[in-house]
């Protein structure tokens, strides 16, 4: 099981523009057969800070996601309004 | 519903020391009556980078968690081995 946190930082004046792109990205990604969870959150202190929390069976499934039509079409439309580069963390579950 | 990402950065040589503290913190926090989810992950690229993904009903529940015996006892034991300050993000669900 692969857990991912992906963070985007959008220009304040462009937040309204990117909302429909995020909405479509979430909706279509959740329809991917390998998607376990794909949830989007907004920082309470920063309305331009968008945070995805994602669950995939493995890295191959994430790579398939990143090559989908919806990802390759929508992510550049979102990134055109970035104020800084996005970040992502690939994580393993803590086993103690 | 309140989602939280809390990140700790532990000195590489102290990772083995903090593991039992994290194990106990996860176990006891999950027993809190208001805890919806409390999951711990480790950055695949950095074994000293620990990431909690938490779900609470509201901010009041998070404040109660931060005042528990296990939190106030274990977090300082973990933080004694930090290499930099931890971070946390309080988030709302994206509603589109």
UniProtKB/TrEMBL annotation, chains A, B:
PANTHER family assigned: ABM DOMAIN-CONTAINING PROTEIN, QUINOL MONOOXYGENASE YGIN-RELATED
Keywords: Monooxygenase, Oxidoreductase
Family annotation (InterPro entries): ABM_dom, AI-2_Isomerase_LsrG, Dimeric_a/b-barrel
Oxidoreductase in keyword set: yes
Coiled coil, from the record: none
Name the record gives this protein: Quinol monooxygenase YgiN
Species for this entry: Kaistia defluvii
Any GO molecular function: monooxygenase activity
